[in-house]
Structures are given as C-alpha cells and as structure tokens.
C-alpha cells in the first residue's frame, strides 16, 4: 500500500512517529510524507524553517516547494509535487489541512488529471458550526464532493461535516499519538524537593495555555474551597490569564499553594506530570466571541490527558468538546464551569486512594489500546483498507 500524507505538521520530526509506526506495520506499506520546503511557524515575524528530506526504510519525508509559508489553509505546492506523484503513484492521498484547504483541492485535481485513482482523504480538528461565503463555500463543496474518507480529531468535527453535506466514511481519532516511552511513570524526588512539594501534598496539575477558556478560574475556586487540605497547584505553561490568576490567588488566600513553571522544554514535561496526584483539564466552551478566524472555541481533544494517563496519573476533565470521549470511564468528568462538581471530583481522589488507583489502571489501559502512535497506526491502516476495499 502506497500512502502519501501532506501537512506542515510533519516538519517537526517528533510528530512523525505515528506514520513511522504505520510504515512498519506490514512489509508492503510505503509512506511518503510531503512537507512544505519553507515554513514560518507562528506568523510572519518568526524565522523561516528550511525543511530537509529524511528516509528510514519505507518511510520518508519529502520537502516540496510551496506557496504560502505560514497559512495552512492557503498552503499549496509547486510543480515538483507532480513529479513526486508520477513516481510514487499513491493509493491513498491524505492532506491534513482541513476541509477548506487549497492544497487539498490541488491534490484532488492532480489525482484526477494524472489518473492515479487514489483515495482522497483529509484530516480536520474543527468542531464548531460555521457558515461559508463564496468563493470558500465553492472550494469546500468541491473538496467534500471528491472526498473518499475523513479523519476527524473529534466527534463534533464529524458532525459538523455532516451538516455541510458530507456523507462518506469518517474515522474519529487524533492527529498525533502519545509516546509511551517518554510519558511513563518516573519518580521525581529531586524535582519534588526543588519545588517545595511536601510528602503529604496532593498535587493538582494543569498543563496548557493560561487563558480563560481553559477553565483555570473555575479550578482555582474549587481548590480555594479545599484550603483545609494539604495540596499544591502545579501550573505548567504560560498565557495572558497569569496576572489575573495571581491576583485571584491572593484574593482566595491560596497564593502560597501555587507553583508556577512557565518555560519548560518539551522533553521535560513528562517529569512534571509525574509530580501530579491528578491532572485536571477544566476547559470551558465559548461560542460567544468572534474574530476574523474563529466563531468560538470548544476543546478539540486535550492531548495532555493521554500524556497523563500514559504516566499513570488519574485525570479529571470537564465535559467540554472531546474531553468526555477521550477519558470515557477512565477518569472523572464534571459539567464545565461547575465549581462544586469539580471540587467533589478532587476531594474524591484525595479521600479515596483506591479510586485513584482504579482510574490509574483504567487510564493506562485505555491509552495503550487507543492513543499510542502504534495504536493510531493500526486504526488508520484499518481505515485505509476499508476505503480501498
């Protein structure tokens, strides 16, 4: 099976693990990953990345000349994509830039003109309803009409596409898996001591952006109601809400309980997750604000949940977006913005160590069977076989 995947995401080598695992599943599988030759992550002010080719057996990354260096919707490829398609003749063409991507329309059209007869797929994270105007509405209609299968990062994303008229096959799974060799139980006594965490402290962890929609004010209020308990709040990340959180921590009388860790290398994140007694993702859906690019926000997946589950840390999440589907029965779920319900979840883990251990076991089993890169590779191969059949 010859599989071609196109996305700017795979410029980052770490993001390629699922596709490497896919190439190793069966001897006849070949995976070619197309990435833009020049990319400027984070916008026009940032430095351009010049990507380099990589080959490992039947897996390879091929940089291709590109138009647009920082907008995934506008990303399209130069003429060298034609020679690559002619040489490789893929049976699967998967573009991971969403339903409205110009690059996806480009590869659909080349597939037709070159008579490759490959199956067309795209990946999307988008999970909120939206309306389109001409000419983008025509572009999306063309893409959906010529799509053989969709991989959606969440259940809501699949439903949104149904609302836009897509009737084909959909597989719900995240774009990237968790590396169980990096995210695994690793005692950190020295780091715990450096951060002033005492042996009897119950460490409530959060990893992510410090923004209002992540529910940090709700989590802070819940913890403030448990001041008589020995706990610490470990916050890993950064964002504009940090100043507000600091002010609120003083107001709530919990300032000394907070541990701020603002800048951590990606390789160091597993160490901090291993300090946590529980990881909480209290995301809050917001469909009210509107910008030039979005009409709101709802949790698309919550990758930190599977990182914690792989590290044998019990998780608590709100019912925003995909969180309940990710956690399922392997963690605790509360209604978003419900301070009392979140407080009850935290308290139950503090008071019931047997419950915590049960969730550790269920969470670990769930992530190993559903969310490692190997597990995702098996799922996506099954979906490809279904399409080709």
From TrEMBL:
The gene is hpsO. InterPro entries: Glyco_trans_1. This is Hormogonium polysaccharide biosynthesis glycosyltransferase HpsO. Residues 188-365 form the Glycosyl transferase family domain. It comes from the Bacteria. GO terms for molecular function: glycosyltransferase activity. Pfam families: Glycos_transf_1.
